[in-house]
Amino acid sequence: MKALSGRRSSDFLRTLLLRSSRGALNQRKTVTFGDGSAVAGKILISAASVLVLLAIWWAVTYKWGLPSGFAEQAERADRIENPEGRFSETKLVRACKADPQCSYSQMFNHRTLPSPVNVLRAVNELATDGWRQNTLQAHTWASLERVLIGLLLGVLVGVPIGLAMGLSSFFKSVFDPIVEGFRPIPPLAFVPLLIIWFGIGETSKITLLFFAALWIMIIGARSGVLSVKLSKVHAAYSLGASKPQVLTRVILPNALPEILTAVRVSLGVCWGTLVAAEIVAATEGLGFMIWDAQKKLRMDVVVVGIIVIGLMGVLLDMVMRKLENWLIPWRGKG
Amino acid sequence: MNDGTANLSLSGVGMVYDVPNGEPVEALDDVSFNLEQGRLLTLLGPSGCGKTTLLNILAGFLAPTSGIVKLGGSLIKGPSQDRGMVFQQGALFEWLKVSDNISFGPRMNRQRSATTKRMVDELLDTVGLSGFGDKRVYELSGGMQQRVALARCLANDPKIILMDEPLGALDALTREKMQGLVLELWQNTGKTVVLVTHSVEEALYLGDQLFIMAPRPGRIERAYELPFAEIGLSTSPRELKASPEFIEKREEVLSLIWQMEEQIMGHEDRR
């Protein structure tokens, strides 16, 4: 049996940590285990989870990384020796070798897993000095631009094909084998061909992303057409609508939720495909940056790249969700 | 204004569906009748009797395998704004405002927007939804949505209105209120109406003519001329539905339908 005061303090902790954003009804529910609607995100717990992850990262790199403040000390010492020169990684290695307190093995582990502080420093370096003539922003934009252009082309070509497949037996028969044949092939499998045809420049990247988005868009648009309630189409014809009017005024708005879902999925797939494609061959972009940095053992730059890739993925998905709420408020209410 | 342009005539209408790996199904067999302009016909029958098939043929969504269907002397070949349709539910366009749903027909037919706007306001008033024009369809209750569906249909000024269980998804109270509205609209517009329903009471209350349909093959089993729709315009619905004449008719029709249902069950047991 628990003491009363103990229960009270645990209640306080619970309201602090578990306060639900879903309103009062959930607090009155006695059955919550198995009731999906009673499961809600608690911001404090999520924040704690992120902090724990960062703490583990920091602790691990503190143990196996450079001795605390070693890099700063070495840099300060170097400044005094050469006020004009830049403090480079080579100088850091040299300083470590010279110092009995700093072992080379620690330097190596510092290379394998950079600490959060190293990564923050790398962000600063990449944002101002950049990597291979391009700042972090420029690399990010290069990747983003490719994704947006490839996706746009995929939507412009895929949606009409998908609509046609949902509306006519002829087009369904024509495109079905093509779509079903190409869809299971991971877009990256085409990279060798595309490089031979278009080189390692923008054309091959955008073509790759176009194909990555195309099949998803076709299938989304087709299933959007197939999900239209027949009574709505019948109603439109009974109200005197012509075939083009039924297409633009009934079928298209009805298919819009599924088309936008397909755009969202395509965006995710394109982003992943692009980074992989940039690793294979590119001269700029986030994928290129992390691959090039790996060759130079700059793991801090690699980690920065990985984090930016992840953040951009989350950001793009958030933008798409906002767009959906704004464009199709009627979704699921038909 | 009975000029015969809304007279409906069917002769020998049959509908046979081909079933893969099975015998063809006769959804309708030799359905013939004339419906004069301004009448309200209700179709009632057990499921599978072909009443929805018949309505779809009248709307022009299905072409019968035999027979002739004419409205005002001209053959029905496909859907047209001559024949307005009110569906059970979910046939409104949820991406449009209420007023845009109602003006959908006139806009498709390229009518001037000034006239349309005035008409939409009048129709909203007629179906008791004044002030709801700017709402989204999904913000309305089921009963209000069916009011919008009625208004949308009337906006095109069709010759005949076809209703496929228009009140079937509504709760009992709303349903009774809506029945009153249907009667009122029928009286005020003088439209020919064909209404399919599952509810015996509704069929008796709304129809000034009633066909009981039977399955296998789908056909008109019995036709009634009914007085209740006319009376219903001046009497309260509860009073009317509690009157001995109404109850007597209701029991008669119910027992007929029960008989049919039992035959169907027996038929299926033997299979």
What would you say about this model in short?
With about 325 residues, chain A is mostly helical.
Structure explained in plain terms:
The complex is a heterodimer of chains A (334) and B (271). With 334 residues, chain A is mainly alpha-helical. Chain A has helices at residues 4-18, 24-28, 43-64, 70-81, 89-98, 104-112, 116-128, 136-167, 169-182, 191-198, 202-226, 230-238, 243-280, 286-295, 299-327. Chain A folds into 2 domains: 70-112, no CATH class; 136-327, MetI-like (MetI-like fold, Orthogonal Bundle), CATH 1.10.3720.10. In chain A, helix 8 (136-167) packs parallel to helix 11 (202-226). Chain A is flat and about 90 Å long. Helices cover 40% and strands 23% of the residues of chain B. Chain B has a domain at 1-80 and 209-271: Rossmann fold. In chain B, strand 7, helix 6 (172-189) and strand 8 (192-196) form a beta-alpha-beta unit. Chain B has helices at residues 51-59, 98-102, 104-108, 113-126, 142-155, 172-189, 200-206, 228-232, 237-241, 244-270, and strands at 8-17, 25-35, 40-44, 66-71, 74-75, 83-86, 160-164, 192-196, 209-214, 219-225. In chain B, strands 6-7-8-3-9-10 form a 6-stranded mixed beta sheet, sandwiched between helices. The radius of gyration of chain B is 19 Å and the shape is globular. The chains are: A mainly alpha (334), B alpha/beta (271). The A-B interface holds A 229, 231-232, 234-242, 245, 249-250, 253-254, 256, 328-330, 333-334 and B 59, 61, 78-81, 83-85, 87-88, 90-95, 104-105, 108-109, 136-138, 152-153, 156.
Features:
heterodimer, A: 334 residues, mainly alpha, MetI-like fold, 2 domains, 15 helices, B: 271 residues, alpha/beta, Rossmann fold, six-stranded mixed beta sheet, four-stranded antiparallel beta sheet, 10 helices, 10 strands, 23% strand, globular
